[in-house]
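Researcher: Here's the sequence for the chain we discussed earlier.
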Amino acid sequence: MNCAICERGDDRIKKWIRHHVSYEPEIIVSLCYGCHCRLHGSGRVWQDPFALIYGKDKGPLEFSKRVVKLYRRKGIK
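Model: Thanks. This is the structure I predict for it:
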């Protein structure tokens, strides 16, 4: 299983969250705890992969682009 946003796999994720992308129709995706926290704006993410790869200034932009792609893949506009 991979995180629907950062795409990191089981071997690197300690805590998984089932996140509703939509309630009607019900669509649920699996997110790593860090992406779930960041998605809801609920705290700092330890070793955020987007900040590590793209830098602290561009990391939030790349994260946001991935979230938009996720929702589009699931048919949510």
